[in-house]
From TrEMBL:
InterPro entries xrefs: AAA+_ATPase, ABC_SmlMolc_Importer, ABC_transporter-like_ATP-bd, ABC_transporter-like_CS, P-loop_NTPase
Superkingdom per UniProt: Bacteria
Protein name, entry field: ABC transporter ATP-binding protein
Keywords from the named record: ATP-binding, Nucleotide-binding, Transport
Pfam families xref list: ABC_tran
SMART domains reported for this sequence: AAA (SM00382)
Molecular functions per Gene Ontology: ATP binding; ATP hydrolysis activity
All residue ranges annotated as the ABC transporter domain in the record: 7-235
PROSITE patterns linked: ABC_TRANSPORTER_1, ABC_TRANSPORTER_2
Length: 251
C-alpha cells in the first residue's frame, strides 16, 4: 500500500447464493482521483459499490478506507444511488442542509452561507425553496449531487449519476461533478453504463470482467478541456467498448 492509497480492496470475493460475483478482487483507489466502474449489466458493479459503502459484507477479504475499517470513515463518505432519496417534504435548501445537521453543524447561518455557495456553483440558486415535485429530473439530480458534496466528502460513491437524462443535461451535470470533484479533491468512484461518461469523468477506467476480476485502464482523456473535441476521444471509447466485449460475455 502506498501513501496515496485511500480505499484498499484486498482479496475481496462475494457470492449471492451459488453465484460468484466478485472473485479475489484487488484494487486501490488513490486519494483525490476519479474512477469509472463499467461492465455489462449484472456483472456486479452495484455490488462492489455496496461493499465499499459497507452496506453488505464480503464473503472473503476486506476493504479499508483511509487505512481503517469502513465504519470509521462513515462521516467522510457520501453516496449517490439511483434512487436519489430526496424527501418530498424537504425544499432544496432543507435537503442540502440535512448532512450538515447530521454532522452536528450548530451554526445554521454559517451552514446556509456554505450551501448558497454550492447552490450557485451547481446552478441551483433560484430553486432553493422548491420541493422535489417542482423540479425537473436534471434539477433533482443536481440537488442530490449537491447534497452529497456539501459535507466535502473524502470519498464519493455514485451509481449511474446521470442515467435517464438527455445528452445535453448529462454533459452539463458531468461538468459540474468534475468541477466539484477537482475542487474538493474527493476520491470518486462511479458506476456508469455510458462509455462516454466513463471516459469524460474517470481518470481511471475499471472494467469488471466476466470472471469477477477487475481490469484497470488509465484514461488519457480525463479532465482535458474540450476532451470530446479532441482527436482520439471517440477512439478511446471504441477501445474501451471492445475491451468490455472481449472480457464480458453476458452472464
Ligand atoms: N439481493 C440479491 N440477491 C441475490 N442476487 C442478487 C442480489 N442483488 C443482486 N444480485 C445479483 O447479483 C448480480 C450482480 O448484480 P449488480 O446489481 O451488482 O450488477 P450490476 O453490474 O450493477 O448490474 P446493472 O448494470 O444491471 O445495474 C446480478 O446477477 C444480480 O441478479
Amino acid at each position: 500500500m502506498s501513501n496515496e492509497d485511500f480505499v484498499v480492496i484486498s482479496d475481496i470475493s462475494f457470492q449471492f447464493g451459488e453465484q460468484l460475483i466478485l472473485n479475489h478482487v484487488e484494487l486501490s483507489l488513490k486519494k483525490g482521483k476519479s474512477y469509472a466502474l463499467i461492465g455489462k449489466s449484472g456483472a456486479g458493479k452495484s455490488t462492489l459499490l455496496n461493499l465499499i459503502a459497507g452496506f453488505i459484507q464480503p464473503s472473503q477479504g476486506r476493504v479499508t478506507i483511509g487505512g481503517g475499517p469502513i465504519k470509521k470513515s462513515k462521516g467522510n463518505t457520501a453516496f449517490l444511488f439511483q434512487d436519489l432519496g430526496l424527501f418530498p417534504w424537504q425544499t432544496v435548501m432543507e435537503a442540502i442542509m440535512m448532512p450538515l445537521l447530521l454532522k452536528k453543524e450548530k451554526n445554521r447561518e454559517k451552514a446556509k452561507e456554505q450551501i448558497l455557495v454550492l447552490l450557485k456553483e451547481m446552478e441551483l440558486e433560484s430553486l432553493k425553496d422548491k420541493y422535489p415535485h417542482e423540479l425537473s429530473g436534471g434539477q433533482r439530480q443536481r440537488v442530490a449531487i449537491a447534497r452529497a458534496l456539501i459535507s466535502k466528502p473524502e470519498l464519493l460513491l455514485m451509481d449511474e449519476p446521470t442515467s435517464s437524462l438527455d445528452s445535453m443535461t448529462k454533459e452539463h451535470i458531468q461538468q459540474l461533478i468534475l468541477a466539484q470533484q477537482q475542487k474538493l479533491r474527493t476520491t470518486l468512484l462511479f458506476v456508469s453504463h455510458d462509455i462516454e461518461e466513463a471516459v469524460f469523468l474517470g481518470e481511471v477506467i475499471l472494467i469488471l470482467n466476466k470472471n469477477g476480476t477487475i481490469q484497470e485502464m488509465k484514461n488519457p482523456y480525463f479532465a482535458q478541456k474540450d476532451a470530446k473535441e479532441q482527436l482520439g476521444f471517440y477512439e478511446a471509447c471504441i477501445e474501451i467498448r471492445k475491451s468490455m466485449n472481449m472480457e464480458l460475455p453476458m452472464k
